[in-house]
Amino acid sequence: MFELPSGAEIQSIIAILKSGLGFFIPEIYLSILFMGLIILDLVLKGRKNAILGWTTLLGLGGSFYFIAQQHAMQARELFFGMYVLDEYAIFFKYFFVASGMFAVVATLADRKFETEVKSIGEYYALVVAMVIGMVMMAAASDLLMIFLAMELVSLTAYILSGYFKRDARSSEAALKYLVYGAVSSGLMLYGFSLIYGMTAETNILKISMALADHGYDPLVMILATLLIMAGFGYKIGAFPFHFWSPDVYEGAPTPITAYLSVASKAAGFALLLRFFYIAVPHGFSPYEDILGIDWLSLLVIMSVTSMIYGNVVAIWQKNVKRLLAYSSIAHAGYLLLGVIVMDEIGTQAVLFYLLSYFLMNYAAFYVVVLISNRTGSETLDDYRGLGSKMPLAGAALTVFLISLVGLPPTVGFIGKLMIFSALLSKGSLYIWLALIGVLTSVISLYYYMLIPLNMFLRESLEPNEKSLNPGFLAQLMMAVLMILTIWFGLFFEPLSEFARYSSSMFGLSLY
Amino acid sequence: MEQLTTIGINHYLTISAILFSLGLYAVMTRKNAIVVLMGVELILNAANINFLAFSHYNGGMEGVMISLFVIVLAAAEAAVALAIIINIYKIFKSVDVSSIDSMKE
Lengths: 511, 105
Hints:
By secondary structure, chain A is mostly helical. In chain A, 74% of the residues lie in helices and 1% in strands. Chain A has a domain at 288-511. Chain B has one domain (2-92): Helix Hairpins (Orthogonal Bundle), CATH 1.10.287. Chain B starts with a helix and ends in a 13-residue tail after the last helix. The interface between A and B is large, with 43 and 45 residues.
């Protein structure tokens, strides 16, 4: 049925693969780092956690050098269209490596890792493996590569969320993450198989050309889109596919919760944007080739329901991690608003919002880690009176929460502003969407402000005036993050320029 | 009748649709975590059949390659899943998904 390739053909295949390697250096470097960490752990026999952590931090930092060199390279496809290198992918390489570093920093600060686990083992190696998977998700341009990268992220995330083996909540988080993740990736794969059946292509650029040339059956298309959205929606944690997130966020180790809520969500959005911008054919106006309910209305429904559900249900939460989980569902809704815009401005807004979300959400989780180090608790009632015992942590957390609400003068305000102005630039079509976004932000003000309310205005249940301040390094870190959150709220030019520069995707300009 | 006697792509697609539905049914109704994972395997295999059938009738090797990778990944996923489920059994003395629910507001 299939002919064997001749010797010359094999030679040319090897030559193409070799020529792609030069554009794949950051990923190769990270893979070497991953293996090096496993060997280092073997040598240290898991005794010295801090050495392993600092090595990971330095190693991840070193990859910035290789990523920065890729700016000079032209956007191109690698490995027979499996993988692309463009400004968009480079942006996410920076993003994921930085978020991996932040997860390591939070882990080094978290005391629970000293009591709950005997040795840190392959933990840091898995964090690095997840970075590799997410970097590949952002750059994958083939259905097979998308699936493989997503599974790499998922498998490592299952293990990481259940890393406290003897802790019931952590194990339960791993089980729930696993069940939902396995089902949704199965659904997504079935959707991919339908797309492959319609187009006989697996490269997303060629899929879009085939769909545009030959047309498609709208019923099959909407079915495939729904199934694929199950996979992507699970990764971004948007409304109908969010069921795992409150339990997983509450049960998983806090650094991993932060890592999942920022990096894993961003990876989902990187994939979502690239897939829907390139693979699904669309005219210049999003409503041009409307066939019944097309996939854009699916995104609109997901976005609106996520914003409303996440913000409303968060009101009744008593656990801070769970509260932030519901807030992250709402933020997925805001980010989807930027995807719906479907142009360069929208992409820029999403990228900027992801940057601001990175800063404020990681910082908020970092403070949660520091507080739970001292109090051993994450429930809202135990935050009472902490404002006088940990003044800097209280002030910093308040700033980050204000930023999460989207109030000036913080970076979160600029992020929301860019999303809404991108929506309004499309004319009157999306005014009601922006309106829902603003109204749900007002709701979010209530539950975010419950935390500062408890910290500053309510008396502690067991009053003692002992100071609970964390160490000097942690204080410094909090102060820097707090200043950055406000600084980028006032001088956002460099971030928004970077987001605009990064919004060009390979394949968009070929039309 | 002609369509029923010669095996064509529709037969493969029907089989895979049935497998997919059975897998989804198992995932939605069963409480045992291991049975849920079996349902996931059914879904993955339904997708595999689709890929192979389309690959055969469209020509080209992409579908075959994808299904090979899927088989390998399914094995890796099963390994991680069973490790997690064994750990769950040690703690909760049960693998019933609906009874493992310690975190509720």
